[in-house]
Amino acid sequence: MKPQTAAILESCASAGWVVEPLARRILAEYGLPVTQWAWARDLEDALEAAAGVGYPLVVKVVSPRVIHKSDVGGVVVGVEDEQGLREAYRRMARLPGFEGVLLDEMADGLELIVGAKNDPQFGPVVLTGIGGTAVEIYQDVAIRMAPMSPDDAESALESLRARKLLEGFRGAPPVHRESLVDLLVRFSEMAHDLGPAVESIDLNPVFCGPERCVIADARIMLPRNQG
Amino acid sequence: MDLSRLFQPKSIAVYGVSLTNPFHPANVIYHKNHLRYRTATYAINPRGGDLYGEPVYRSIDDVPGPVDVAVIGIRAERVPDALRECVAAGIKGAIVISGGFAETGRQDLQDEVAHISRANDVPLIGPNCLGVFSPPVLDTFFLPPERLIEIRPGGISLVSQSGGILVDLMIKLTQEGAGIARGVSIGNRAALDEVDLVRFFLDDPATTVIGLYLEGFRPGRGREFADLLERAAKPVVFMKAGRSPGGSRAVASHTASVAGDYRVLHDILGHAGALEARDEAEFVAFCEALSSTRSSVGFRNVCIVTASGGHGAVASDECQEAGLVLPTIPAEDGDRLRDELSPSIRDIASVGNPVDLTGSATDRDILASLRFLLGRQYVDGIILLLLPYLPAITPDVGARAAQIARETGKTIVAYVPHIDKYGIFIEGFQANGIPVSHTVQGAVHMAKAIARRAHP
Questions:
Q1: Does the model's ipTM exceed the 0.90 cut?
Q2: pTM as predicted
């Protein structure tokens, strides 16, 4: 396991999961592409960092007590300017366990979910599918053992019912297949490396467009008995 | 660990043969093997004595000559000692039929049995199982022969986590005309599990197709099984029980919520090349089709040949659902096919896909259609829906159809209704390597199995 990752996982053991900014650091350590982002601990920080990330942006609450951010108003999309950022910040600062906000670039493209789980029978496995909040409804996913070869990743994409969406549907440009496959392979290597140290990982959504695939949200759940 | 002697023993000792209860499982096993099999069979009971004139030995040490396999049907508490005695006597394998281990809370006894097996490198099946069916040398199923049908010999080897399901599958395969090489009920799988047995069957020359009834893998063994499948040169069919998602801790993670135990297994084993049967009917059809056909052409592009429009329509629907392709027959080929048909049906037959030869079809029309269609590049295989009650169709059609399949190197599967009455029609196909189902759906399942083997 990579050093920074090991330290982060240890520091999060008692919370039982890894908040998004720390999860993003783990992803970065494994060479995975994430959207432009910054973690601001106070409003001044936030206003300064916003210039670096660039408006419009997404503001998300950082709190070890808020797993489902959007359920409690912990996500604001399309913040256009300082005024909007101030409002979003003030609202989020009232949420329990508040540890600042994550400023995130507004990405777009086809929304995929890429996930991992440590399965009792098969060990680390990777899930690839059509993402968004309705993942559980469509369940259009494919599961492979980690690590995956590029061929495994291709076969997972090919087995999706909605695979035509990846190829460009009704005039939409096809997604950048090579970077998607590369992301899947790298992520699967990470899942294999982490093994039983994590219970599950959700990258949801991963935005896939004609030029790149990029991770826009990450949640890492830790095994309950750890720590 | 060498499992070969478990399936091919020259001699066996049956522990637990009762001097007072002729229906004791050990007695059934003893009599079956002693009277019906060629293997030397010895009865063991510490009280000694004799059973209908045959000696009952007090221990394996009293048996004249070496014993390859011990079949143990005594009380669970006494199994470890008996096993140690057998190991000391040099057995090459053990099958523990007895229950009373982990399934009743005696994990300690089960661990002891597993330890004896591993420490001495003696392969062990069970406990709490029916054991091994490996004709004509060994059958440890404690089911009286008169209660079972004669199991048809063949190339399918079965591994089952349930003894009852195993027996059902063997009977159903036999009834459908498919033959069994070996069957193993692995019970509590204290030592050997499904992965070990599938690995053995992959190298076993008697086995051409492996069928597995699965409830679940022990921790980590699913991964080893998937790795094994990646290198498998024989088809592996499996049926999984317990498919409904359990009460998982789903709330926090989409991945954990969607990727339940069954979904993970389904995707990974499918990707590794195993063929999943959703129910017994599919399982039987898959095993039968894969054990009777060898063509490497596959079966993706299917042509349906029928003598009844309704049967053709039902088969078309099933094909669509199974992901099989029904290519359109080009008009010029349709005309050429029509020219091959008898004058009496030439104008009423339908030469689309399905090809409907009507109730006036003769053997000649069927055979001409098969030959013509299998000669087309866009047809991989044919589902032949045969209605033996039609007056111009004869029992010869099966053998002749098989000849065409052989010559073209492509595959035919057949549907023939009503097994008893049309036995001679069915045998014409089956004896010549064409699998037959007694349902239209079953025939499509067979095509699907062959298609999946060629294009996993």
A1: yes
A2: 0.91
